[in-house]
Structure formats: structure tokens, C-alpha cells
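User: two proteins, same treatment. go.

Assistant:
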Amino acid sequence: MNTRFDFVEGKNTAWCPGCGNMMLLAILKGALEELNLDPTRVVISSGIGQAAKMPQYLRINYFNGLHGRALPVATAIKAANPELTVIAEGGDGDMYGEGGNHFLHTIRRNPDIAHIVHNNMVYGLTKGQASPTSQRGFITPVQVYGVASEPFNPLTTAISVGATFVARAFVGNQGQARELIKAAIGHKGYALIDIFDPCVSFNKINTFNWYKENTYVIDASYDPSDKAAALKKGAEEAPYPLGIIYRQAEHKPTFEEQLAVYEKDPSPLHRRQRNSELLNKLMPSE
């Protein structure tokens, strides 16, 4: 599908043939197009890794930062210009490993951003060592006797810390994944969408077929506003639930809404009045 978010026709990606990132790229472009967003008003912040290359293949604004540091950059961009649609994007190692501390505290701050995480249970860029979400027993060139630690659960962690929107998708279920990304972008506040995205080169265990056999779509009768039920649902494994795990019913003030300067003037920083009268109101002298 051709969209306004396509970059240059025929541009090659740096991903392996069959990589799930290619499917996710098409899913994300479709979601942005269906939301009828202006590409010049969309910003993606990413870190380092194969997943973090995603915005390089989209016709949008983007910022590639340091490994694990996409979330504070996204928070700052949204605070500086609340009118933008801001997305933080990267892999499970980038976001839950190197960026684990930012993951926790971004949730606490609750900026109005969507957080898309490619979860393939392995580090793809650095040749296949275990990531925070790798399953116990998974053998890699580094973990030669198999992973000994329990895998990190981003869903229950996010809900516990206070996230108001938590979802999980699978790139093999493209229609649902597109709708979940649209819901995350449309949510007012921090929104996590953890996406199963198989690595065909370095994870021969958690393959496309494995995810198909070990996931299920949440029934329509499920109530995502029930926090206790969401924690239980988010803890399920093999099969893993796909859908909105938790969505808080009442609005939680966002990071931008709680800034003193925002309360006085919610317009982007570059458009705010610079006269002394306004500055005195925003930063009164003692």
C-alpha cells in the first residue's frame, strides 16, 4: 500500500530477508495513513538496533539517539511541542535493557506518547545474545548453557508502575496490530504496545509459526479497565494474549499538562510570547 509516509520508492532496508520489521513497517505506515496524520507533524524517536532503524524508512521527522535513550528524547519533544504526534520506537533490548530505567520513569511521568517495542526475544543487531525477554533455556553464542534468568514481563511491569494503556500485538496478525497502534497513538498519555516481531536470523526458536501457535486474540467480552484482571492477563504465557491488556477509564494528567509553563500557555515553545510581562507570569521573581 502506497501512503504519504513512504520514503523513496525502491529504497532498500538494512534488515535480513523475511525480517518481521518489514511487516511492522507496513503496519505502522498503514496506521499513520488511516489516522490521516500529517507526516510533517509526526516525530519518531528511536535508539540503537535493527528495530531503531524503522524511522529511517518513513517520510516523517525522526531523531536517532543513544542506545536505550529514545524515551527521554520523545518526552522532551512532546513537552516542547504538544501539537506533535510523538512515537518512541525500538527493540526489546533497546527499550527494556539499556533503556529499562527510562521505561519505568517515563511511565511515571505519563507523557502523551506512543511507545512501540519490537519484541523478538533476542538482540538482533549484535548477533544474537539473549535480551531481557528471552525465555529461560534459550541458547545463544553468549549464553552457551542457556538463559538462566526469568524473562522480563513489560506488560505487568508497565501496569504496576502506572501505565494507563498497555497492549500486545503480533506482526503476523496485521489487521489487529494496525488497530492497536492506532489506539495507542490516539490514547491521551503514555501508551505501550509490545509487538511480537520474529528475528529470522538469530532466533530459531521463537519463529513466526511459534508465535502463531503460542498467541491468541483476547475475547471481546474482556474488560481492559479492570486493573486486577489486566495484571493477571498480562502475566499469561504460551499462549500469550493479543489485544488491549489495560486501558484506564479515567484520564490521568499527562507530563505536559502538569508543567507550569503549559498551564500558562499550552502552545509550542517556539510560538510562545517572549515579552517581559509573560516571562514574569511564568517565572515570577522572588
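Protein 2:
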Amino acid sequence: MAMILIMEPDARLGAKMCEVLIRAGHECRAAQTISDGLNLVNKGQRLLTLLNARLPWTDSYTFLHTLEEKGWPILFITGDAANADHLRAMYQGGCDVLVSPFDGKKLVSAVNELAAVSANTLSLGSLQLDLKRREATMDGQRLTLTAQEFALLQALMQSPDAALTREQLLRTAWGYQDVGETRTVDVHIQRLRRKLGATCIETVYKLGYRLRMA
């Protein structure tokens, strides 16, 4: 089951798609404008978004950038099959394109497939983690990470823009329950910075670290 946000200017069509997806076991919300969609996105719960490409692009760019920063998946809906590659190229993260007209079965299939892929993928800007294959890429280039570096990066990416303490990172990335020496976190952060870039992981004074991707 996924939480779905349908960005569809036609309220009747949006309601119909919601009905189909709810019957398939998903939770669903609908918005007719980009501003309404942003309000739902900013509430914090992870969403898989269906975005009709007919919505105004001047507003949609801001919306897409917000989703990219969160690493949330998006399914573009378009009536022009020739536009599919262009839409995919616009979004750095989990995405796909559904060409209309389509029936309920095709809609559910596209949503389920993207949800399944996204469940095994973490994305933040140009940085992606494939949790199933245990692979990391940045700007399309594979990163060479140790198992512990991968686990630490995964912990940071699961809470993007959040300041995490060294103790939290030890529990999440190392599985420690009895937290003592935290120096090992600092050592592995320095190693990640050398591989990701010095500005990608921010030191939060007297607290810990925060992952930030442009």
C-alpha cells in the first residue's frame, strides 16, 4: 500500500482515479492546483505523486524540486507519448510516465510498479541508493562504499535535512543499543565526505550531522 497524491486539474477525473486506487488498497488524496499539492506534500508524510503534465509548468518546477529534495517518487501523466523521455529527464529520482488514455487496470499496475521500485530506492537530488542491490550512485556514477559507509549514508538519507545525533546514527547504522564511544561516527562521516563532496554532509554544532544535497 502507498499513500498517493493525485495532481489532476479535472476534479471528476481525479476523484475517479482515487476511487480506483483506493479499491486497489492504496490511500489517496487529490489536488487540482500546484499550491494545494504543495500544502499536502509539506505535511511530511511520504507520497507517491501522480502529476498531470497539463498543469502549469511555471508552478510545477517548484513542486518537482520539492519532491526531488524529499526523494519521493512521481508518475507523470501525459497525452503525448513522444513527451515521455523529456518528462523522465526532468526528474532526478524515482519516476515513470503513464500515457493517457488508460484504464483502471493500467493505472493500478503503473502505481504498483513504481511503488515497488521506490520501496527499494532512496533518492536525494542526484544521489541514489538501491537498497536491494546495495549500490549507491551520484550523478549517474557508481560510488564505492564499504558496507558500513552504505549503512551510515542510508541512515542519513532516511531523514533528509534532519539533524541526527551521533548516538542516533550509531543505533541506526551500527545497531548499537548501548551507546558509548561515538568517535567512529566522525571517522566514517569524513570518509563519506571524501566520496560525496565536502559540502554534502553538514556538521551541526554540539549535535551531530545533517545530509544536504543541492
